[in-house]
Amino acid sequence: MDMRQKLRYGLALLMFFAAQAAWAYAPRDCINCHKIGSTESNLQISIAEYKASIHGEEAECQDCHYLVKDDSHTTTPGSGATNCSSCHEQENHHGWGSNSGTRPQCYSCHTRHAMLPRDDPRSSTHSGKMQQTCRSCHPRECGLTDYWSWLPSLQIASHSKQDFSRAYDRANCLGCHQGKASHGRKETVDDQICFTCHLTPDGNSKLLDHIHVKADPQGQPGVTAAAVIYQVVLGVLVLGGIAFFIHKFSVNTNRGSDKRADSF
Question: Residue 68: is it exposed, middle or buried by C-beta count within 10 angstroms (0-12/13-18/19+)?
Fold first, then answer.
């Protein structure tokens, strides 16, 4: 290959990469399609929320959505996927034993685009928001209990402590569910220490038996038995009340009939 051919070859490569760069997406292209109010896509985000998030000044769209290069992503399933561990050392091991298609992802708790520092009251992982965040997957444990579990449960208010820097509250899920139960590892994620008194190293309740009451014949047969007994008692009371009012109504009706008969 002579010098002219090399120059032509090099020029062709340069033009090719220049064209690729021109065709490739820039953040403004993503925003034009995916901002709220756009008619280009049904997948829309609040740009203001994202800019106010911890990633707003640190990452652009394709830093996370690294498979999105051009228009081909609209017809390529899974091209919008992200891999948080490419930047964050903490990998997602939450729900590791669950089905891979349904187990929680990082955004299940941290949100997709509105991630805020953990100490920000607006953050989905702030101690005051943990119950709201966790109950999307754990409704019974977070108080949105089913009837059978609610009926025999005895709700005991959290006891007070003198250290006001800690949130000793039943709504503070991470107070007990540290480490393995949150990110899937043993390391704690904040300084709440409820688990030191209330849980054994294997994750079982240490002092209060079943903290989360569930009418489960296998795991909590006593709760199931109590639920059945309460159900029977409640049924008897309801039926007894109905029978009492029917009897009272019948007696009053008969008395009224007797009085009308006597008047003739």
Answer: buried
